[in-house]
Amino acid sequence: SLWDIDEMVTAGLLTSDSRGRFPARAVSVVQLAATLAQRGIAPRNLRSLRSSAENTAGLVDQVVAPTRTQHSAVARERSAADAAELAEVSARLYAELLRIAVDENA
User: Is the alpha carbon torsion for 44, 4, 49, 56 positive or negative?
Assistant: First the structure.
C-alpha cells in the first residue's frame, strides 16, 4: 500500500530521484520488506540492512574504481561486471553469515 511505501521511504529503505521516481529494484525491495513486515519486522527495523548494503557498495566501489576511471569502454564494462560479481558474492556471504547467526540462536 502507499502507507507501506511511505514507511519504507521514511525508514530509508527506498529513495527516489529528483523526479520522485524509484529505481527498478524498488519493486523487489517493497515486496521483500512487506514480507518481513507481515512476519513482524517493521521497515524502521531494517535500516541497518540498508546501511550495511551502502557500506558494502562503498567497498565494491573502492575495488573497481581504478578500472572504472579508465577511458576505454571495455574497461568500464569490465568494471561494471566486476562490481556486479562482487555485489553478488557479498550478498551470498551475508546470507550465509545470517544463517549461521540464526542457527546459533535457534
Answer: negative
Count Cβ atoms within 10 A of the Cβ of residue 22 and give its class: 0-12 exposed, 13-18 middle, 19 or more buried.
middle
**Rounded-to-integer distance, Cα 82 and Cα 66, Å:** 12
- Domain borders along the chain are 2-105
Tens place of pLDDT per residue across the chain (106 aa): 666 888 899 999 999 999 999 999 999 999 999 999 999 999 999 999 999 999 999 999 999 999 999 989 999 999 999 999 999 999 999 999 999 999 999 8
The CA distance from 42 to 13, in Å, is 11
